Amino acid sequence: MDRVSVTLLSSSSTAYLMVSCFLLTLLMLLPELKQKVFVRSEVLQALRQLIGSVGVTFGSGDITEHELEKLAPGPKNYPIIGALKELNGYEVPYQAFSEFGQRYGPVTALRLGSVNAVVVNGIDSIKEVLINKGQHFDSRPNFRRYQLLFSGNKENSLAFCDWSEVQKARRDMLVPHTFPRNFSGRFEELNTIVVDEISHMLGTVRDGTTVAIKPLVLSICANAFSQYFGSYRFEVEDERFQQLVRNFDQIFYEVNQGYAADFLPFLLPLHRQNLRRMDRLAEEIRTIILETIIGDRYERWGEGSEPCDYVDSLIEHVKAGRGPALEWETALFALEDIVGGHSAVGNFLVKAFGYIVQHPEVQQRIQAEADDVLERHGRQVIELTDRAEMPYTEAVIMEALRLIASPIVPHVANQDSQIGGFTVAKDTLIFLNNYDLSMSPQLWDAPESFQPERFLQQGRVVKPDFFIPFGAGRRSCMGYRMTQLLSFSIIANLLRAYTIAPIEGQDYRVPVGSLAMPEQSYNFHVSARNC
Ligand code: HEM
């Protein structure tokens, strides 16, 4: 791009920014200006009067007053911004959603910018959406940002696509890989891969030094995922590997951010530059994966070849022309999404270690549990099969998941339906308030404090029904078992070998409401254990 067009572009962006800021300021002042607003209850009132006077008929039948009253209550919606300003002033928007629960009950209707939404609070109503009426609510938001992040088509994405036969097939194809059964061949393979990767990385950690935890765990997770799903191990020093891990992490951070532009599309041009950057990062990931994990596997695949890993399953599906038809291009997006799942585990682990380093007594209990198992079995490393004998370590993972309280990816109604008896129109965006399920004082004692014991009863791990950090139903997380297995192995093996300690003056508070951690995160002091 020449210099003139760059100048033009930046000056038009500046003008756009100024106009948008002016517009937003004006909109925020609207209540003070006492403009007329669109409020559901007022519309209801008007309709009631209409029915009372002339007996109107809508659609296929009469709408009775009783049916109209099934519209959910909610805050005031202002022109253009809707109820967006209600989310101001909270550390996590879901805290505002919990407030709605207190004020309006389990189902709150509101407009966010141009998007009609409902917020669902409480496990009964959330299960109604995810399970009982799962097929009414299995679409995902159609944010322009998601389209741009996945090469112009969000259907390429496993997590942001709408439900379809292709999505069902993609999920079915993943199950044997992401949910390996205990003691199965894949389970054993995963165990060997993870343990080897941890040993390799721990070999680089020197006693008495300071370690940046994020690159360490991301490397372990990335190479474990690449080997397990694609039978390819990177040299950790390979520049392509470093770039792959970095790019995935930056995209993971991006998709986990909420933007006002999702609801106010006129703000999207402000993100154009960043979205272009994401597009470039995604292209680089594609190139690296084609050069390394894929190589010439697609061309070499022939009749009679037996699938050995997830890459083979995808190639086989495409080449054998199995239904529903899957283009190789689409299959590659699925592979990238799954290999990219390592960022979720890595970021989660950074936060889990953030809690552990603040609670030396928790660290000691994990170490004691690990030492005990190793002594009993006469081994040097913790295996995945040891999970059953290390309930405290499992409880630490659950407690970290609870406190982080990352959101359930929003759903969208694909047809007119009802939640908790309230009418929900097709295309309504559904927020399921997982934050409240994880943090409500009605559900947990001292919800703000880190107490792994809350998940233990008589030495066994017990998960309450209302604890659903991975969602539920037909759009539930495809990676929760991988998360549980890898987190267990990495926490147990790392703390078996080292004690981590905070560095004076550093801030170890764990940001909540999202899994993603910024690129620069915690450093720990590590000392080797004599065992
Ligand atoms: C701490 C780690 C993780 C957490 C807390 C988490 C949480 C979630 C949640 C809440 C959902 C939405 C569920 C719903 O809509 O009902 C989801 C979806 C999904 N997750 Fe995870 N996840 C994690 C790790 C992973 C990993 C490691 C992978 C890949 C191996 C993965 C793959 C997916 C996919 C593909 C979906 C979309 C499923 C669909 O829409 O059909 N996740 N996850």
Automatic annotation (TrEMBL):
The chain crosses the membrane at residues 6-30. Keywords: Heme, Iron, Membrane, Metal-binding, Monooxygenase, Oxidoreductase, Transmembrane, Transmembrane helix. Gene3D superfamilies: Cytochrome P450. The keyword Nucleotidyltransferase does not apply. Heme binds at C477. It comes from the Eukaryota. Its cofactor is heme. GO terms for molecular function: heme binding; iron ion binding; monooxygenase activity; oxidoreductase activity, acting on paired donors, with incorporation or reduction of molecular oxygen. PANTHER family: CYTOCHROME P450 307B1 (PTHR24303:SF27), HEME-BINDING MONOOXYGENASE FAMILY (PTHR24303). Belongs to the cytochrome P450 family. This is Cytochrome P450.
